[in-house]
Amino acid sequence: MAKKRTNHKTKLGLQGPVVAWQDSWAKEQSDNIMRTGTGKVYPSQDATPTPRSFVKEMQGMGAEFYVHHMFPSLVGQSEVIGDMVNYGMDICIGNEYGNINGPYVEGTNRYDVPDSVIAEAARSGRLIGLLYDEPEHLQINASQYRKDGFFPHWAKTDGLTLDQAARKVTKAVANRVKHTEELIRKEGMQTNTIPLVTEQVFPVMFHTQARGGMVVCPKTMKESFQSLQLSTALGAAKQYGKDMWICVDLWGPDVGEWFIRTSGFPGHSPGEYASALRMSYLMRPSHLFTENIDVLLKYENATFSKTVFGEVWDEFVHKYIPENRLQWNHRQVNPDIVFIHSDDSNYGQNTRLFGNRQLVGWEKSQSIFHVWHLLSHKKIPPHGSCMHISGYDFPRHRLKEEVPLEKFPLRNGRIWDGDREHPLFYPVNNVVVYDEFVKEIQLGNPKLLIAAGTRISLESLAALRKKAENGSTVIIAQWLTTESWSESRRVGEGVWLVTENFLEDSSVHETMRPFLGTDQCWMQRFGDEELRIYPSDQDGFELNFERRTIKE
Which domain holds residue 504? Predict the structure, then answer.
């Protein structure tokens, strides 16, 4: 009997401007506070559209919701909500401007949207989420914006063990989720319709924050290794039963002959953006938006006009999506390889784990990077999980040094005589990441399971052993096993391989090889639908996609 299929729809959104024009509801303040994380106040480059013209332009571009980082002074906030109601637009309220400028929740570097604002927006019926901008970054790198001390985003963790620090962060997240849910419930709204969303550049703390109740939102493009980032977020969403949003972030490392608002913005080519939109959509998130709208549009002579990036978005929304309706959702991700590792919050910085200044990323934590190196046919480096590690030199830094602020925007970009840093393609073969608390029932029927990182729960360890006995191949770090399971051997119908070093152990490489696919394909399966992604150029800056139905 044929399986019943559902046409799942991803909701599309756009995030407001930070350089192009002043906020339509807070003109005077727009050029007086920092609206980007660059450490500078940027003067707006274009005239300011009216609220009506701005919202109508977004709707004409196919946006169903607006991501609005509110001003901490609350200027224009009630008017924003009123206009969302009047023009029939949903809104997600973000906290980035507050994180950058304050005021902060006592003892943290975090700005929380005030209760009164949440209540007003919830009553409007148009609020669909509360976006926390890069909370994993600000938990670990607590001095990024606030300079008067070291105040991690969710909780102070100095003096704690790694496990204690992770649990304290989860508890702080859970407390904020509970507070917000109670507030929304008092307004007569269903709490699951207005989630707290963790929008992340680093592929760490997805599981920690999802465990506390947040919806995960990986950034694609940016400085990410795409397959690693998405495999990790997909696993966190599935394990903890959460939606997954995706932010296609135009900020990035590269320079080229394309429209540039300011150094690093956009830091990706139009072709890469087109591929990233398709890649992100094909992961079938519940919500997908672009950060920021500045790159898509210019506003001159009281008229909006699309840039080349705006044309890319337009083609994606009005042609690609209608021609590529999907029959799956992200929670149907169906892995052949399950990578279980503790959420150590280490992306390669090897220090300040979970914001704890005494904790460092020793070899056990770095084993996570070693596994990714092998899973990706050695394309992902063995010393980190994103490009904010040694070995990468971002072209945007040179552009910033060479071009004065007042010379932007660059209508035709900049001829670049060096290499670009950020490809989209990193080959992995149907991998999903779960954390150290994963249950047996959540594992599905993978062919290969790998366990690394610093710790694992006894329940997860027992589940791994049972999978080996039932026919799977399990590769596990020696320090995660019990004494009675510390020997490599066949168990039941499967394999139990214990290693002290993933990189140097030839038996690990030989055992993994049959499961890795080819170095020219990144594959992800959703139910019985297989998504195959290939590089369309030599370095993988742009992608080709193939969809297959796997017959039973």
Answer: 337-388+424-535
Closest CA to 393 of 362, 370, 416, 410: 416
Instruction: Identify the residue with better confidence: 8 or 80.
Output: 80
pLDDT tens-digit profile of 233-255? 999 999 999 999 999 999 999 99
- Amino acid sitting at position 339: F
- What span, in angstroms and rounded, lies between the C-alpha atoms of 57 and 239? 38
pLDDT tens for 177-234 read: 999 999 999 998 888 899 999 999 999 999 999 999 999 999 999 999 999 999 999 9
Which pLDDT tens digit goes with each residue over 295-323? Answer: 999 999 999 999 999 999 999 999 999 99
192 domain-assigned: yes
Does residue 400 form part of some domain? Answer: no
Are 108 and 240 within one domain? yes
Please indicate, yes or no, if residue 89 is contained in any of the structural domains.
yes
- Three-class secondary structure of residue 486 per DSSP: coil
**Does 306 lie in the same domain as 357?**
no
Q: Determine contact, residues 441/462, Cβ cutoff 8 Å.
A: no
Alpha carbon distance 211, 439 (integer Å): 13
> Rounded to an integer, what distance in angstroms lies between the CA atom of residue 522 and that of residue 266?
25
The DSSP bridge pattern shows strands 337-341 and 448-452 to be parallel
Q: Please report, in angstroms and rounded to a whole number, the separation of the first and last CA atoms in the chain.
A: 11
pLDDT value for 8: 59
Whether 197 and 306 map to the same domain: the answer is: yes
- Mean pLDDT confidence for 115-122: 97
**Alpha helical stretches, state H, 484-525:** 506-512
Structurally, how many domains does the chain consist of? 2
Cα 250 to chain centroid distance, Å, stands at 13
Residue 188 and residue 245 in one domain = yes
Are 315 and 356 members of one domain? no
Residue 55 sits in the same domain as residue 143: yes
User: Per DSSP, what are the bridge partners of residue 491?
Assistant: 494
Give backbone dihedrals phi and psi of 148, rounded to 5 degrees, phi first.
-95, 15
% of the chain residues with pLDDT over 70: 98
Pair (282, 376) in one structural domain: no
* pTM of structure: 0.97
Number of H helices, E strands in the chain: 16, 19
Residue where one domain finishes, among candidates 278, 293, 325:
325
From 325, 345, 360, give the residue that closes a domain.
Answer: 325
